[in-house]
Amino acid sequence: MLEHGQQKHNEEQLQHSDMADSTRNGPQGGILQYMMANKLEAAMWLSRLFTVYCSILFIFPFMGLYEAANFYQRALLANALTSALRLHQRLPHFQLSRALLSQALLEDSCHYLLFSLIFVNSHPVTMSIFPVFLFSLLHATAYTKKICDILGPGSLAFLRAILDKISSNQQNILKFIACNEIFLMPATVFMLLSGHGSLLQPFIYYRFLALRYSSHRNPYCRTLFSELRMLLEHLIMKPACPGFLRNLCLNCISFVSRLAPTAN
After folding, report:
1. How is the chain split into domains, by residue range?
2. Predicted local confidence at residue 26, as pLDDT
3. Percent of the chain with pLDDT over 90
4. What is the enclosing helix (H) or strand (E) of 106?
């Protein structure tokens, strides 16, 4: 009986000790546990935060233009890493086959892996960093909210307000990204003509844009193409528009329409 009572007392002491450790570790221990339980998600969150950090230092070159160019490359490389991890998450069983390649090309993460590879070694273009920056910001926001919830419902009120503001403007942000994707196409041609781009870049970027146009998950590129076409047609059909400009715009619309892939 005495031994049984001593054993019970020891168990209670051990239990109290565990509770004390848990209290002492607090929310930080919960965050680490959550991140260790979702290692791939945590790795993507960290790489997205790094992408956001590098993008901001490129857009606002506090450390000089030379360092800004380095941050441009780092942002694109971090985005490539995030895209590769996300693609691995979507297609975990790698198999070198035509079917898997076709399936991979349907994924937005594959599109932005290609995007990073197109621009990582090119002359820095601010327009090309915005899609990478904003996508990373949007996806990092969702995970950061989960971290804040682990810390407690009333914790980090200022940060929560910023995250809620970003989430509430998600649709406008996605439209802005689609606008950047579209206008980067003529930008790559201009880069080629100005000697800052390669001959293959416009052709590879056209392939990227075609994939974005056909995306099942993100229809904003396709929607914005339609909206831009309707806006341009509305403007050129006004009586004040010169005839030669109207014909030029109609020919351009017809040319772009022929290049557009069939969206399934």
Report:
1. 25-196
2. 54
3. 50
4. none
